[in-house]
Amino acid sequence: MVASTPAERPEPDGSDVDSTLPTVSETSPTVSEIGEFAVIDRATRGRVQAETTIVGPGDDAALVAVADGRVVATTDMLVQGRHFRLDWSTPEQVGRKAIAQSGADVAAMGARPTAYLVSLGCPPATPIAVTDGLTDGLWLEVAVSGGSIVGGDLVQSGQVVISVTALGDLAGRPPVLRSGCRVGDVVAVAGRLGWSAAGLALFGAGIDALPDVLAAHCVPSPPYEQGPIAAAAGATAMADVSDGLVADLNTLAHASGVGIDIRSTDLVVDPELLQAADLVGEHALGWVLGGGEDHALVASFVSRDDVPQGWTVIGVVIEGDGVTVDGASAPNAGGWDSFQR
Ligand SMILES: Nc1ncnc2c1ncn2[C@@H]1O[C@H](COP(=O)(O)OP(=O)(O)O)[C@@H](O)[C@H]1O
Ligand SMILES: Cc1ncc(C[n+]2csc(CCOP(=O)(O)OP(=O)(O)O)c2C)c(N)n1
Ligand SMILES: [Mg+2]
Ligand SMILES: [Mg+2]
Ligand SMILES: [Mg+2]
User: What value, to the nearest 5°, has the Cα angle with vertex 79 and ends 227 and 27?
Assistant: First the structure.
């Protein structure tokens, strides 16, 4: 491998050094003014814990009851300028997205989220209206996904960074792995595709239109409950779509040692995406195939009869290696790679 010289590296576009904070109000004190423990207090006081929380925030660690003797565990982080911008999203939307990103991974194992640990880094000048907004958003999404926030961390950093660890319960079922696709299975999707990418394109072009599409970029809507439903229906493999449909199906194909062929005519391209595509001069199907961050669920099932309500069959598992669309490779649907953009 040849190390790239500075001259070969792409110029930074500035997006990853964004450290702007919204001026929420002239009167909001900052995090440094009220101090770490007061901010933590505001993030935890009065919030209702799930039944499985034995010890919640306030001690050295939380204690969580594990119903079936195993716990699903996953973590993801959001970095300002890379995963969100505070001039595009409200703090509440960022909080919701942070929970959704990890909660969707729990659902993709076939489990139900039970507990979250939230670590926050922020500059000292962060208004507490921002940390309060984040807290509200985190708890709003927890109310959708299930579970509760049992602890976390708060540190000073140059930009806003949020890391969410989620735990989940499989209710005695086996986990649904990425490696379980078998030739002849059908592949189905639950949840929206392409919306987040369409919103990102609108934001990027500075077009203030289609508010539902912009909101879908700021707050994904993972179909949390469909994870356990698919597992109970016998899903053979599953993942959430964070990097892009083709990219995430590729992880299933590679882990399972198979090919997956998607039929483009079976993909739902919502009319709002066609409108957005007209506005920015891009292709809506490209967003559906290559856009990430909607956190839809994709899964394989032995037959069409196993596919639960709320899922749309979009393809089949075939012999081969990787993902094809209508039998051909999809070179423009590579999806997100944290170090390529
Ligand atoms: N720094 C790391 N150390 C250990 N495991 C990691 C690390 N980063 C990612 N992984 C693991 O690699 C796998 C793929 O990660 P990722 O692509 O982020 O999955 P997802 O898109 O579901 O969040 C996951 O099982 C994750 O736990
Ligand atoms: C400012 C900004 N630029 C670009 C994007 C697009 N984007 C950022 S991360 C990502 C993919 C998912 O992020 P990743 O860190 O890979 O999450 P994971 O797959 O681990 O869930 C996408 C499409 C964005 N959300 N915000
Ligand atoms: Mg991840
Ligand atoms: Mg995932
Ligand atoms: Mg990713």
Answer: 110
Residue pLDDT, tens place only, 74-112? 999 999 999 999 999 999 999 999 999 999 999 999 999
Residues 199, 72 share a domain = no
239 CA: nearest ligand 1 atom: 22
> Model's pTM, two decimal places?
0.94
Give me the pLDDT at residue 17, please.
52
Model ipTM value: 0.97
Domain that holds residue 148: 29-169
The DSSP secondary structure of 18-64, one letter per residue, reads --------TTPPBHHHH-HHHHHHHHHTTPPPPTTEEE-BTBSS-EE
Is pLDDT at 8 greater than 70 in this prediction?
no
Residue located nearest, by CA, to atom 17 of ligand 2: 242
Q: How far apart are CA 228 and CA 108, in angstroms?
A: 8
Q: Which ligand is nearest to the CA of 107?
A: 4
Tens digit of each residue's pLDDT (9 = 90 or more) over 131-164: 999 999 999 999 999 999 999 999 999 999 999 9
For ligand 2, pick from 76, 86, 293, 295 the residue to mutate: most ligand atoms within 8 Å of CB.
Answer: 293
Q: Which residue from 105, 165, 196, 248 has its CB within 8 A of the most atoms of ligand 1, so it is best to mutate? A: 105
For residue 125, give the 3-state DSSP assignment.
Answer: coil
Atom of ligand 2 nearest to the CA of 341: 4
Note whether 266 and 127 are same-domain residues. Answer: no
Last residue of a domain, one of 128, 145, 169: 169
pLDDT of residue 337: 87
Point out the ligand nearest to the CA of residue 195. Answer: 2
Determine which residue's CA is closest to atom 27 belonging to ligand 1: 74
Q: Which helix (H) or strand (E) holds 224?
A: none
Q: Which atom of ligand 1 is nearest to the CA of 248?
A: 21
